[in-house]
């Protein structure tokens, strides 16, 4: 099963396109921008897991396996 590729930072709402670098995820796919991940010392505030660079998805594969459109940011 491919990664969900969530479209935004859960902490600040920054857009995080699946085809662009700069997103960080934990093993549960909680998703954060680079600035927020850095401020949180690369630890997920939800599960305590390590935040790692999320891989990008090529345009061809985005057509076959589209990224999620469900936003997780909740101010």
Tell me what portion of residues adopts beta-strand conformation: 5-15%
How would the global form be characterised? Answer: globular
Helix content: 10-25%
Main sheet characteristics: 3 strands, antiparallel
List segments where confidence is low: pLDDT < 50 over at least 5 consecutive residues: none
Protein name: DUF1272 domain-containing protein
Pfam families: DUF1272 (PF06906)
InterPro entries: DUF1272 (IPR010696)
Organism: Parerythrobacter jejuensis
In short:
By secondary structure, this protein is α+β, with helices and mostly antiparallel strands. It has helices spanning 34-39, 59-64, and strands spanning 23-25, 31-33, 52-53.
Descriptive account of the structure:
The protein is α+β, with helices and mostly antiparallel strands and 75 residues long. It has a single domain, classed as Herpes Virus-1, CATH 3.30.40. It contains 2 helices and 3 strands, in the order ββαβα. It has helices spanning 34-39, 59-64; strands at 23-25, 31-33, 52-53. A hairpin with a 5-residue loop joins β1 and β2. The mean pLDDT is 95.
């Amino acid at each position: 099963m491919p990664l969900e590729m969530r479209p935004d930072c859960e902490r600040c709402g920054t857009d995080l396109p699946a085809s662009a670098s700069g997103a960080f995820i934990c093993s549960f796919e909680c998703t954060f921008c680079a600035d927020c991940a850095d401020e949180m010392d690369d630890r997920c505030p939800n599960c305590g897991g390590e935040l790692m660079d999320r891989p990008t998805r090529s345009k061809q594969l985005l057509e076959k396996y589209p990224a999620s459109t469900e936003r997780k940011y909740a101010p």
